[in-house]
Amino acid sequence: MNPHQAEHAALIAQIAEIFRHCGYEGASLSRITERTGLGKGSLYHFFPGGKDAMAAAALAQVDDWFRRRIFQPLERDSAPGAINGMWDAVDEYFLSGQRICLMGAFALDGTRDRFTDAIGAYFTRWISALQRALERAGVDGPAAGELAEDTVAGIQGALTLARALNDNGQFVRSARRLRGRLARYL
Amino acid sequence: MNPHQAEHAALIAQIAEIFRHCGYEGASLSRITERTGLGKGSLYHFFPGGKDAMAAAALAQVDDWFRRRIFQPLERDSAPGAINGMWDAVDEYFLSGQRICLMGAFALDGTRDRFTDAIGAYFTRWISALQRALERAGVDGPAAGELAEDTVAGIQGALTLARALNDNGQFVRSARRLRGRLARYL
DNA sequence: GTCTATACAGCGATAGAC
DNA sequence: GTCTATCGCTGTATAGAC
């Protein structure tokens, strides 16, 4: 990644953080200009498609991070190591529960309909990558699928609960128990 | 409940549905007037506090429903029956995954800060009511608390996943497994 | 690339007739 | 109670100077 691309990625990451905090509708362009320090002219220079394109870029960046750090290792590497790596990456990415999942947040309201494909692809791949890793670890097909669904759903639910109760510890404890449950199969 | 109160409750339920579908920011007054058939004058007659008061009333109605159908039975009745009743009520309320949880949706974005107390009280009471029912059923304290947290988080995550994948079956399957997991302790 | 100025639609909210 | 008209503001988006 050249410096130019890196700056652009940093900008997208900043915008993604605003979407996470305010939601799609709540993330106004004035908030985005304020938090990024860029005028509207600059923003529309980088994202000719406007706010919709900014959100799409944010989702694509999230997907890319998970693809490289979680999905591909789950599909490729030895299962126990990849699954342990998944839990470390999850904890790192969600900052131990301080940060929510942009895909999950967008999925819950009307924003979903703007980004159906990106959101669906992300969760589908996460579940199927985890399922296949569990199968390689010896879990039989149906059980592996159920375990993968329960795990991904459990992470989303833990993020919701942590924010609802304003307690990051909630996420850390939930994640530890989900991790322990998977570990019994490895 | 007299007819006047019943009409008012039906109006709040209609408004709640709009918030569920569009989120707080996305639920504009023009959408609300359109879907309810009431002009802005009427809406502000019923809710002098405006949109904020409409959302607060919606959350209060949700809380009331769960209190009567889930929290109080869990706190009062025999544990196995109350827990079975909880699962039936959950499935009924969320329409087998077609409907999301307003509390959970509001918790995820900046809307949370407007309704911190209502959202926090709802989840706190759900978890503690379930925990105490499990304790009465013979599960020891810490395990009951963990199980209650995992269950409520699991329901929220299943709702997120069902909407993200646009597949109600996802919720039904997840809920059935969560139910089975609790049943092993009863 | 970045800014300021601006277009115009939609927002939440209010007033007042009926 | 319900409506229409309208307020002031903010929303997204664009134009054009630099």
TrEMBL record, chains A, B:
Instruction: Write the record's keywords in alphabetical order, separated by commas.
Output: DNA-binding, Transcription, Transcription regulation
List GO molecular-function terms, semicolon-separated.
Answer: DNA binding
**DNA-binding stretch(es), residue numbering of this chain:** 28-47
Q: Where is the HTH tetR-type domain?
A: 5-65
Q: What InterPro entries does the record point to?
A: Homeodomain-like_sf, HTH_TetR, Tet_transcr_reg_TetR-rel_C_sf, YxaF_TetR_C
Q: What PROSITE patterns does the annotation carry?
A: HTH_TETR_2
| Protein's UniProt keywords contain Transcription regulation | yes
- Presence of the UniProt keyword Transferase in the record: no
- PANTHER family under this entry? HTH-TYPE TRANSCRIPTIONAL REGULATOR YJDC (PTHR47506:SF1), TRANSCRIPTIONAL REGULATORY PROTEIN (PTHR47506)
This chain belongs to the protein called TetR family transcriptional regulator
